[in-house]
Write a structure and sequence with these properties.
The chain is mainly α. It is built from 4 helices and 2 strands. Strands 1-2 form a two-stranded antiparallel sheet. Helix 2 (about 40-50) packs across helix 3 (about 60-80). About 25% of the residues are buried.
Length: about 100
């Protein structure tokens, strides 16, 4: 399953997108940090939760957000929409955002 910011899953209050879930977590200052070496494992857990219709834990939501944003930035680079420097800057900013 490819994780995107618009993927839907069942949240505590009903269907929600990954983008909306992250926004709600940030509004309530509930963003979790996830160590870089376990991000892929978290995304696997998130994808499994979504496939089964469960509400994923917030750390899995944040990890999935990281992967979706990273993939979107990489895709923008692959399409020639941003430069290598912009790609590296955005990836570094995203990692900093996740790990701090």
């Amino acid at each position: 399953m490819k994780i995107t910011l618009d993927i839907h899953f069942n949240g505590a209050l009903g269907p929600i997108t990954l983008r909306e879930a992250v926004q709600q977590l940030r509004e309530h200052d509930l963003a979790c940090t996830v160590a870089a070496d376990i991000v892929d494992k978290k995304v696997t857990i998130f994808a499994d939760c979504v496939a089964r219709g469960f509400t994923p834990l917030r750390s899995e939501i944040m990890a999935a957000y990281y992967v979706a944003e990273r993939d979107a930035t990489t895709e923008a680079f692959d399409r020639g929409l941003i430069t290598q420097t912009e790609l590296e800057t955005q990836h570094a900013a995203l990692a900093y955002q996740l790990l701090t």
